[in-house]
Amino acid sequence: MAENRKKVAIIGGGITGLSAAYYLQKQVREENLPIDIYLIEASSRLGGKIQTLRKDGFVIERGPDSFLERKQSMAKLAGELGIDDQLVNNATGQSFVLVHDQLHPIPGGSIMGIPTEWKPFVTTGLFSWSGKLRAAGDLVISRSGIEEDQSLGTFFRRRFGPEVVENLVEPLLAGIYSGDIDKLSLHSTFPQFYEVEKKHRSLMLGMKKTRPSTSTPQAANRKPKGIFQTFTGGLQTIVEALENALTDVTIIKGAKIQTLSKHHEDEVRLQLSTGEEKDFDAVLFTVLHHQLAEIFEDEGILQHLAEVPLSSVATVAMAFSEDQVIQEKEGTGFLVSRKSDYAISACTWVNKKWPTTSPDGKVLLRSFVGKSGDESIVELPDHEIEEIVLQDLKKVIEIKGSPEFTVVTRYQKAMPQYLVGHKTRLTQAKEELATHYPMIQLAGASFEGSGLPDCIDQAVRATNEILQYLKPRLS
What we know:
With 475 residues, this protein is of the alpha+beta class. It has helices at 15-31, 73-81, 118-123, 129-136, 152-160, 162-177, 186-189, 191-200, 203-210, 217-221, 236-245, 289-295, 350-353, 382-396, 422-436, 452-470; strands spanning 6-11, 35-41, 52-55, 58-61, 67-68, 87-89, 95-99, 102-105, 228-231, 249-253, 257-263, 267-272, 277-280, 282-285, 310-321, 325-326, 333-336, 344-349, 362-369, 398-399, 405-416, 440-442. Strands 8-7-17-18-19-15-21 form a seven-stranded mixed β-sheet. It has a five-stranded parallel β-sheet with strand order 10-2-1-14-22. A hairpin with a 2-residue loop joins β7 (95-99) and β8 (102-105). α1 packs across α16 (452-470), α5 packs antiparallel against α6 (162-177) and α8 packs across α9. The relative contact order is 0.19.
């Protein structure tokens, strides 16, 4: 048995790669399989976009700040790691959209910008009366009848008209993917809306029917609960727990994959930037798609992935004393309409949304800059970005003086864009691998969901595929 040991490489040490290593290690242990696991990360640290800075009593996320609780894979993994007691939900509060220099509350009952309650929608100052009447057309407009993929912008403008899309739907949806809704794929980003239209015709009526009921006595008495979760010590908590749990995994940091080739019929040879060559019986790539196109360039496959763009964003966290910031409108943050003359696209009042992140008497504001088609600000020096963001914030919030400190984090060409036809491109990539390299799997933010639970789900599926491939070869 020892002579027939197999080696598996997991390329990329973000949440997808870490989760894959954890669940593969778990199955190898439970079934006593002769498999050696290697986790190879190009940088000097694990976690990918997850980076938590703990400074002066603040917990500051430099990447993602939370995950949807209803997607249960993250909480399940936290439970297995013994850190689920550190999970906290966001505080509920009013969110706003900045339009024409005014903060307008997001209408109550809105689900991703889709109205499900009449009064808040009719009384909001976000839209003109003509815009409201056009949006009400959703109640009578027929199904599109389009089965093939289409852009989010095309889909939602047809249902609600341009004003509601520009002032509410676009800031909400584009912010999630840091992209252009006129290019993003409906089927790959929000397929549930396509299904609602298909089943109910009207998105308003369909979303109203599918949302949880609040009319029961139990629901009426229940305290509102935030739909997002994180850890009291930040998302870095799960990265640290995973790294500590991978006791049977060989972790190699600071090693980039230079080239890939077949070694014998059933092995892959990887050339590392360290100069080493290693042979593996199965490989899981969790890196971004453009890196895959580079790695497989000599093989002549996956080259269509190089055409898929990556957007750039930066986050700017600013810490203040409580007496420096006068928050006239009580809430947890705001989005910015694309037509507004602001560099920032969104701002979170972190100390309100996540009370455990900030010391008493302190305020933490986290802004986002970099919009699809206008990302040049991300390349500016830190002090210039800080000055621009502070000027924008002072137009909206009364702020005295300068922040106690600022943390600027850039993600240049790091946010995958699920363009129209994304599923077709992904199918093509998987078919090319199945033909030329059946021992290789793909998972991660570039493929089937960029949220943290989505990445974990992909990791689980990929490890199952690897084991299904390897087990017949272990005997």
